Amino acid sequence: MNQIPLVDLKAAHREVADEVRAGFDRVLADTAFVGGEEVRRFEREYADFGRIEHCVGVANGTDALELALRASGVGPGDEVVIPANTFIATAGAVARTGARPVLADCLPDSYLLDPQAALDAVGPATRAVVPVHLYGQMADTAALAGQLPDRVRIVEDAAQCQGASRDGRTPGSGGIAATSFYPGKNLGAYGDAGAVLTDDEDAAGLIRAIANHGGVAKYRHDVPGFNSRLDGLQAVVLRAKLARLADGNAARRAAATRYDTLLADLAATGRIALPTTDAGNVHVWHLYVVRIADADRDDLVGKLNAEGIGAGVHYPAPVHLTPAYGHLGHTRGDFPHAEQTADRILSLPLYPQITPEQQQRVVDTLTHALRG
User: Fold this and answer.
1) Residue 38: enclosing H or E segment and its boundaries?
2) Quick one: pLDDT at residue 295?
């Protein structure tokens, strides 16, 4: 059976294989395994790409978010507002600082954090709000910025939106953001990697120190820290892929537009709802997510997978309905939009190399499965 994966990492590797091999040879020859010139070059190149002053490479996206929170003053006894519909790592990064995640509902169509719900969740102990830039488009940070108390920082979870912008603003510009280079991201490493993005030189310096056992010089420990460093081999991969990221994002946009056209008739029946893009957003389509109206979504995923279509769900349970965060004291019904989203969304295969023929097969198979 001809498989259509949800994400085609093999196709992505073929495009950069020779360049990565040559870069690995450089790192091995220099024995620059942690940090080094490849990391420094990648950090500068990604900062330029994202139109920000500082990119600090770290070990993974979860560490990046924890570091961004710590650099924003978040610690034990604080509260941090996050969306209920996010990957569990958002809540995990908050918990690792010693703070308590406080949940807010999402918007019903874009699935992005509802700004008013976030503002309503702010209390006396709130130290930060974390808008999650979900599926490739940015949440509305401007709607929060002018309404939050001075003590509350905006810390962006930008793990899914490398190359995105909203009203001309990129993640981290004028503030601070964390991103992930997990292999399946638009900019993916060959293992775990991440970065903190900011225009704040002091914050960037503090993050470098915390992520290097508390200091930027050997055996100098100015603040309590831990180990979270980007290695040279991952930087080689990221540099090679970064050079192709703008074209890859454009290919994703073209594929998303093609899905919109192919799925238009099915959407007109009311059986599915197509993804929406907020005004002002330049979407980079990390995922193409439809909402199923009246079918058993999990049964539908099984039918698509049985036909070789790599459909998935991002994410099958909101944070408050996971055992890990049951202690927050919420029940079903507390965040209705997040719950409906978790029950009904379906991610279709999308990557820069996907062909029109593959997309047509995805749509034909989905249509048949909905009728069956």
Assistant:
1) helix 37-50
2) 87
Looking up tokens 């992930």 gives 180
Q: How many domains does the chain have?
A: 2
**Contacts by 98-103 with C-beta closer than 8 Å and gap 24+?**
99/69, 99/74, 99/75, 99/127, 99/128, 100/125, 100/328, 101/319, 101/325, 101/328, 102/126, 103/318, 103/319, 103/320, 103/328, 103/330, 103/334, 103/335
- Helix crossing, 245-262 with 356-371: angle to 10°? 40
Are both 258 and 118 inside the same structural domain?
no
Q: What is the pLDDT of residue 309?
A: 98
Q: Which among 242, 263, 284 is the end of a domain?
A: 242
Of 242, 259, 290, the one marking the end of a domain is 242
Instruction: Let me know if residue 148 belongs to a domain.
Output: yes
Spatial CA neighbour of 281 closest among 156, 109, 161 = 161
State pTM to two decimals.
Answer: 0.97
Co-location of 122 and 217 in the same domain: yes
Q: Find the domain containing 279 and state its range.
A: 245-371
Q: What is the CATH number of the domain that holds 185?
A: 3.40.640.10
Could you tell me how many residues make up the chain?
372
Q: How confident is the model at residue 48 (pLDDT cuts 50, 70, 90)?
A: very high
Q: Which residues pair with 288 in a beta bridge?
A: 348
- Nearest CA to 222 among 235, 207, 236? 207
158 neighbors 172 (Cβ within 8 angstroms): yes
Residue 152: DSSP 8-state: P
Q: Residue 325 carries which DSSP code?
A: G
Helices 201-210, 61-71: crossing angle, 10 deg rounding: 120
CA separation for the pair 170, 51 (Å, rounded): 7
Q: Is residue 366 part of a domain?
A: yes
What residue has token string 């969740």? Answer: 121
The pLDDT of residue 355 is: 98
Do 59 and 181 share a domain, yes or no? yes
Structure-token match 């990390």, residue found: 286
How far is the C-alpha of 222 from the C-alpha of 217, rounded, in Å?
A: 10
**Amino acid letter, 74:** V
Q: Which 8-state DSSP code applies to residue 352?
A: T
CB-based contacts of 178: which residues, under 8 Å, 6+ apart? 61, 64, 65, 67, 68, 93, 155, 156, 157, 158, 159, 194, 195, 196, 197
